[in-house]
Amino acid sequence: MSEGRSIPLFPAAGAIALRFAPLWPLSLLGARLTSALARRHPALFARLGDQADKVFLIDPTDLPLVFVLKPRHARPELVARRRDELVAWDARIAGPLAALIGLVHGVYDGDALFFSRDLAIEGDTAAVVALRNAIDNEELDLVREASALFGPLENLAAAPAQKLAEAIGSISGAPLTRVGTGRFE
After folding, report:
1. Which of 98, 115, 153, 172 gets the most CB atoms within 10 Å of its CB?
2. Total-model pTM
3. Could you say which architecture CATH assigns to the domain 12-140?
4. Residue ranges per domain, the chain?
5. Which residues pair with 60 in a beta bridge?
């Protein structure tokens, strides 16, 4: 736990539904999102240096799936896989989905989550530290990045996406957007 906050868990009914849902839509979204991140934030992947060739297993422990991140400079990739699939990885980052998203948004402190055992790190810790530093440096907001996927309609999508994320976040307690940065200017 971090800063006295309780880490909310993904609803059990949603996790059960995801067990039977096809993963290709999440993988397609992951491909589009990483491609857009590479265009919009080239320093994110460049900052990783040699660690960009590593394979990261992002493991939301409250979901029946995992994400395989290959942050290569030329073509980064994020793919959803079933939890029971064997996946080769160099580094594993595991914790509740809300904690993982909160790390991206700067809501939770990674060290505090690690020492409270809300976050587990295995494998190449230098790669994990490099990824964490690269993400922290870019101050990403996943709602803003998802809105950018709408291309020329980004500004139309941004406000409703922000309001939806804030509403879901207030109900679930999950930090679905970055706090403390300007809204979609």
Report:
1. 98
2. 0.87
3. 2-Layer Sandwich (3.30)
4. 12-140
5. 95
